[in-house]
Amino acid sequence: MSSFVDRVVGALKADVRIFEEIEADKTALPQAMMVVAGTVIASGIGSLNQGVMGVVAGLVGGLLGWVLSAAVIYLVGVHVMPEPTTRADVPELMRVLGFGAAPSLLRVFGIIPFVGWIVTFAAAVWGLYVYVIAVRQALDYQSTGRAVAVCVIAMVINLAIFCGFGMLVAGMAAVGGAVAS
Predict the structure, then answer these.
(1) For residue 51, what pLDDT band results from cuts at 50, 70 and 90?
(2) What value, to the nearest 5°, has the Cα angle with vertex 52 and ends 37 and 156?
(3) What is the pLDDT of residue 165?
C-alpha cells in the first residue's frame, strides 16, 4: 500500500494504479479530506485576498462541494450513464475525487508575483485532466469520453445547486435586512 505522499504524487501524475488503490482502500477517506482541505488552504494562500474568514468559508464550501460532487457524479455516472462494468459508491468516489483534486495544491504558488497566475491556470487545466481520469477509474469506465460527459453534466448540476443556494441565502439576507429596518 502506498503512503499518503505517494498517493498525492500518484494523483498528480494521474496514475490509474494509485486511483484504483485509493478506490479500494476504505480507510483513505480522511486522507482524501486532507487533500481537499489542503487545496482550499493553498488557494487561499495563493490569492491572499480572502482573509481568515474567507479561507474558513472556502474550507467549508470546498468540503461541502467535494461531498456534493461525489454524490452528483455517483447519480449521473452510476444511474444515468453507467457502462456494464460500472460499480461504485459515494465513499469510493469521495476518496478518489479527493485525491483527484491534488493539482489544486499547486495554487499556493499563485502568490508569486507575475507568474502566479500562470501556475494557477496550469493547475486548473491539469486538475481537470486528473479529475476526469479519477472519475473514469472510480466508475470503472472504459471510455474517457463518457467520464468527460459525466464531469460536464455534474459540473452543470453542481453549479445550478450552488447558484440556487446562493440566491436563497441572498434572498434570506435581503428579507432579514428588510425586517430589521
Answers:
(1) low
(2) 50
(3) 82
The band of 180, judged by pLDDT with boundaries at 50, 70 and 90, is low
Per cent of the chain over pLDDT 90 is 64
Identify the pLDDT of residue 87: 92
Among 125, 115, 107, 92, which residue's Cα sits nearest to residue 50?
107
Contacts of 78 (CB under 8 A, 6+ apart): 86, 88, 139
Q: What residues does each domain of the chain span?
A: 4-180
Among 158, 15, 27, which Cα is nearest to 94's? 27
CA 16 to chain CA mean position, Å: 17
Judge contact between 138 and 69, C-beta under 8 A.
no
Q: Tell me what the pLDDT averaged over the chain comes to.
A: 89
- The DSSP code sequence of 7-75 is HHHHHHTT-HHHHHHHHH-TT-HHHHHHHHHHHHHHHHHHH--SHHHHHHHHHHHHHHHHHHHHHHHHI
Which residue pairs, CB below 8 angstroms and at least 24 apart, start in 158-163? 158/65, 158/68, 158/69, 158/72, 161/68, 161/72, 162/65
Burial 27-36 (b: 16+ CB within 10 A, else e): ebeebbbebb
